Amino acid sequence: MDIIKRFVRYITIDTQSDPTSHTVPSTSKQFNLARLLVEDLKALNVDCKLDEDNCIVYAHIKKNTDKDVPTIGFIAHMDTAPDFNGANVRPKLVRNYKGQVITLNAEKSICLDPEVFPCLLRDIGSDLIVTDGTSLLGADDKAGIAIIMDMVEKLVTDNSILHGDIKLAFTPDEEIGEGVAHFDVDYFNADYAYTVDGGFVDEIEYENFNASSCVVNIKGLSIHPGSAKNKMINSMHLAMEFDSLLPRHEEPSCTEGYEGFHHLEKMEGRVEKTVMEYIIRDHDINLLHKKEDDFRNICDFMNKKYGQELVEVDIKETYLNMRSYIETRMEIIDRVKAKMIKIGLNPKSSAIRGGTDGAMLTYKGLLCPNLGTGGRNFHGPYEYLSISEMRKASELLVEIAKVDE
């Protein structure tokens, strides 16, 4: 099956995860894709199983060489982000992109403009898959799934490609930080692995943010506004004050590269109670802890200012930077870079301004840097995919799987 046909087939299945859910997986509809992938793998005569308790697909392509080579894993996630509508995806094909503004939805005046998204200029001459402006595309990470499946088809249908044991896994709930919470590293049994969940195909990523979440609970006192003088405490006003005391230059809109941030993702309130949900990120663990302390210090300051315990903060670790672990085995990075050069790419590494399943797997003992898919502008209606880079990513995975000559 052609890789693009696979991709379109997968993105039409709604697999959006839900951060408010307490089930595993967070949405049962993720099983729809999991079961389809099991069918596709079985059609290719690949040993596989679906973990029905945790919605994880595991598979194994057996070695066809007598050489003693490492067992390599490839992993992608099935869910799409809850940030924007993930249902009724209607992809559109843009052939031989020439640098123009792409109209996604004329009725809603939604366009992909290279002045706003300069990454488009890199894709001049490529065929692109875009959205119709009403949903995200799902390239994050169904492009990764399609790329892995395309590699699988090539390996099992061409016996001349010599490879060691290859392990595969497709996980749920990566977008809400639960993708590998129930991943069985011992059962997977790979020497190392790669998540296929990045952007540019010539990049390999092995460092990411350290991440925390922070929930700020603010109590107020609701009094009839007609008799509220010197009595009412409006929790929404206190919430705005709390947020105003955080460093403005550390918001996402002011940061790039290795600069960390705090980000207010959600806020709900009434006079008597307001809840704010933040994420906190930094590549340097010490700077992350400093940002966490900002929240605690503001909490203490406001409670002292108002003379009562009105503000509470609850900070939890989400994931950690995998760089220090990967640097002990740089051969798994260098080998990929050599393979990139072999297929005509100019390899580079960059720091992920986010996290992947690979970071958490690395801390579970399975070293797992990240490879690109050709996807861009994830998590919204401006998401698109470079078809040429997607095909190149499949070629790269085959090269990584091959036994070195």
Average pLDDT number: 96
Number of helices: 11
Number of strands: 17
Low-confidence stretches: none
Distance between the termini: 29 Å
How would you describe the overall organization of this protein?
This protein has 405 residues and is of the alpha+beta class. Helix content is 30%, strand content 22%. It contains 11 helices and 17 strands. It has helices at residues 3-11, 30-43, 119-122, 139-157, 185-188, 235-244, 285-306, 323-326, 331-342, 357-363, 387-401; strands spanning 47-51, 56-61, 72-77, 92-94, 102-105, 110-112, 128-130, 166-171, 192-198, 204-205, 210-219, 261-269, 273-282, 311-319, 370-372, 375-376, 384-386. The protein has a 7-stranded mixed sheet, with helices on one face. A hairpin with a 4-residue loop joins β5 and β6. The relative contact order is 0.18. The mean pLDDT is 96.
Protein topology:
Blueprint: H1 3-11, H2 30-43, E1 47-51, E2 56-61, E3 72-77, E4 92-94, E5 102-105, E6 110-112, H3 119-122, E7 128-130, H4 139-157, E8 166-171, H5 185-188, E9 192-198, E10 204-205, E11 210-219, H6 235-244, E12 261-269, E13 273-282, H7 285-306, E14 311-319, H8 323-326, H9 331-342, H10 357-363, E15 370-372, E16 375-376, E17 384-386, H11 387-401
Parallel strand pairs: 3-8, 3-9, 9-15
Antiparallel strand pairs: 1-2, 2-8, 4-7, 5-6, 7-17, 10-15, 11-13, 11-14, 12-13, 16-17
List keywords for this structure.
405 residues, alpha+beta, four-stranded antiparallel beta sheet, 11 helices, 17 strands, globular
